[in-house]
Design the sequence.
């Protein structure tokens, strides 16, 4: 069976640069005492510093990893090395029956999946006490309403005083009102306020961006105070912005969209040892984007593992929204390599028009997916840009300034390329690039 994965896709799974480097060093046949595969499962034994070799195994359908080494990183260097060996020397993986340690792992995974399915079915059958649930909702609504009123007064005072002194204000000013929003059970507002704290120190145009964010907050307050009069989808957006989480089991009862979904981009960020992973999908038949969010603490693995540059048949259920983007996977098949560059738009003007329509539906969109074809990277005094064939340009995020802008230019080789990224209304954060149907990741 030919290799389906590229080295770039596999190394994108590494938890850090050291793991990627060490995994690359183990991607040789001489490092492995035994190797094997059966359908979508591969395994191998790698001799380490101990008496017994480390036993590494991968279920390629997700992919999922397991290794007997003591490393707390996931995947560890042995899993990465084994995966790279499959991609670069697939003939070394002999089709055979799995050893006992692999068979036991597969059986435990199957049992765990069955138990999770049973628990989910039981939770769906056991409906919550409607009276108790109504009381909890009413109590939270009361607390949020009180916090909203306090935030309204704070915002009005802040704007009345003007924004000129914000760079001299201490972080304590923002943290105090953010902590009050946490007490009011509106953590989404607290997050937005804490993000605002740093904007006044990020360039000459900081006042415009602060005012825009404050305006969105005020619009959120206005919407919440008349939430009962708004459409259901808009109510859902307001609660999401407040940090009112929706039970995943409840989401999965919604209508599922079946399609061939392309994994077009992925980005992992960490804050206080909590890692958040955003994975963007694009549906070939539905022509829609979907955002999968996953969270893990420390070095714990993410619940789902999807490789950018691959595609999979799956059913997705979208969270309710006036402009649905976030989704959950209901069912999925094994992922395979994406054979060619995904379709996109060649007009930046058309892409921004699509964003404008989305923003009119949901004014609180923080990131919007853009898939652009036939664009060229270009550097100017103010930073890096993408330019389409009509000469329209789009500014790239400042994180491109160090080395990634030059990497993007080198990949283009002076020719147009395809780019996927997250647009925040001001800058495009590039996550993926395709050159002659070859995928390159920029997500981490």
Sequence:
């Amino acid at each position: 069976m030919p290799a389906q994965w590229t080295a770039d896709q596999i190394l994108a799974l590494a938890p850090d640069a050291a793991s990627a480097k060490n995994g690359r060093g183990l991607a040789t046949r001489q490092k492995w005492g035994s190797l094997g595969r059966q359908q979508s499962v591969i395994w191998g034994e790698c001799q380490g510093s101990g008496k017994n070799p480390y036993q590494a195994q991968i279920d390629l359908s997700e992919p999922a990893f397991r290794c007997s080494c003591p490393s707390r990183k996931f995947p560890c260097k042995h899993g990465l090395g084994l995966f790279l060996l499959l991609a670069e020397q697939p003939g070394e993986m002999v089709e055979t029956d799995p050893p006992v340690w692999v068979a036991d792992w597969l059986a435990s995974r199957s049992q765990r999946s069955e138990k999770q399915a049973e628990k989910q079915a039981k939770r769906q059958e056991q409906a919550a006490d409607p009276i108790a649930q109504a009381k909890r909702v009413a109590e939270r609504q009361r607390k949020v309403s009180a916090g909203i009123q306090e935030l309204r007064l704070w915002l009005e005072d802040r704007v009345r005083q003007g924004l000129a002194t914000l760079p001299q204000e201490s972080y304590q000013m923002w943290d105090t009102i953010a902590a009050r929003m946490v007490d009011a059970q509106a953590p989404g507002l607290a997050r937005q306020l804490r993000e605002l704290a740093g904007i006044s120190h990020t360039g000459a145009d900081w006042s415009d961006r602060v005012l825009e964010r404050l305006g969105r907050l005020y619009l959120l307050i206005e919407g919440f105070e008349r939430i009962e009069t708004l459409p259901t989808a808009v109510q859902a957006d307001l609660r999401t912005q407040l940090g009112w989480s929706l039970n995943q089991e409840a989401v999965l009862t919604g209508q599922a969209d079946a399609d061939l979904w392309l994994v077009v981009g992925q980005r992992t960020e960490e804050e206080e040892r909590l890692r958040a992973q955003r994975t963007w999908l694009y549906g070939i038949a539905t022509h829609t984007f979907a955002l999968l969010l996953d969270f893990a603490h420390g070095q714990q693995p993410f619940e789902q593992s999807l490789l950018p540059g691959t595609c999979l048949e799956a059913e997705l259920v979208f969270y309710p929204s006036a402009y649905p983007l976030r989704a959950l996977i209901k069912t999925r098949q094994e992922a395979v390599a994406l054979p060619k560059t995904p379709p996109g738009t060649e007009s930046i003007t058309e892409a921004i028009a699509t964003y404008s329509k989305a923003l009119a539906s949901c004014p609180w969109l923080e990131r919007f997916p853009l898939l652009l074809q036939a664009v060229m990277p270009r550097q100017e005094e103010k930073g890096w840009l993408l330019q389409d064939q009509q000469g329209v340009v789009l500014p790239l995020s400042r994180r491109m300034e160090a080395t990634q802008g030059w990497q993007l230019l080198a990949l283009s080789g002076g020719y147009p390329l395809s780019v996927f990224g997250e647009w925040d209304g001001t800058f495009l954060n590039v996550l993926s690039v395709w050159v002659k149907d070859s995928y390159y990741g920029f997500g981490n």
